[in-house]
Amino acid sequence: MASGQSVPGALAELLAVGPFHVALRAAISSSGLALDRIRYRLRLRDVTISVPTLSNWQSGRRRPERPESLRALAELEHVLELPPAALLSLLGPPRPRGRAAHPKGPNAIVTTWGTGVEPLLAGIDTASDGRLTRLSQHDRVVVDRSGRVAEVASRLILRASHDGADRWILVWDAGHAERIPEVVAGQHCRPRLLNVDPDTRMMVGELAFDAPLARGDTIILEYRIVYPAQPRTDSDTYFRRFHRPTRDYVLEAMFDRSAPPRRCHRLDGPALVPSPAASVHLVEFNVTGTVGIRWNM
Fold first, then answer.
1. What is the CA radius of gyration of the chain?
2. pTM for the model
3. Contacts of 229 (CB under 8 A, 6+ apart)
4. Which domains does the chain have, with CATH numbers?
5. Rounded Cα gap, residues 57 and 59, in angstroms
6. What is the pLDDT of residues 15-30, one digit of tens each?
7. What pLDDT, on a 0 to 100 scale, did the predictor assign at position 201?
8. How many CA atoms lie within 13 A of 203 on its CB side?
9. What are 159-184's pLDDT values in tens digits?
10. Cis before residue 84, ω within 30 degrees of 0?
11. Cβ 69 vs Cβ 78: under 8 Å
């Protein structure tokens, strides 16, 4: 597409409904660029990505999941002259269409996080995953002077839809960090099992409740992800994935007052203006898919 040209009708329709890989393939075709030229243009924007990765994305064999891949996708949208978040918005799982729309247990987790997480589910009891409804979640992200995520504090309100729910399954992607973060349990839970892939720095674990829940019971759950001190990393993105609908989600990012970000955006495009206290937040309702923010220091 020539600069300033509007998105063609057929492509616009695919960008509206997806699926992701079909829309990406159409956008690449419409651009007239070969994959190696796209790779070159991304490199000019300080993004390194391989031609096989681009090929896998457009074929549906893989999709962007890690923070660096999501950053690359944002730049790819620019190279392809697409509206901000045109492709990113297609990454979330389908919205609910009846009781059977959302897979339960390990299938739901793999659907959301990709097959790379599957080996980490070994030994994890996912039975409670299908017995809990996440009513609310609040993530408070602490970002240090260099723009690095130092800590994430999470507070969840869960309700049991069946008797016997006794744990929450935690999935965490620490791929941007040089060292594995620590999971610190807070109110009403304790770590029971944590599987870690040292190469990808993906983590899957269980947060065991103080006691099993009966149907209709609610629980307030708190935990923190604490990153060890380390050199500057590329952790300029934070996101949360939801494999089933959540009624409300609050994401708050607290920056160092002496080093606020130059720019801050939602992953789906709109800018966020830091408060006088150097913080930003967003609120979402009936959430599925991926929600997050990115920043530039």
1. 20
2. 0.65
3. none
4. 9-90 (1.10.260), 105-296 (2.60.40)
5. 6
6. 877 778 888 988 998 8
7. 81
8. 20
9. 999 899 999 999 998 866 778 899 99
10. no
11. no
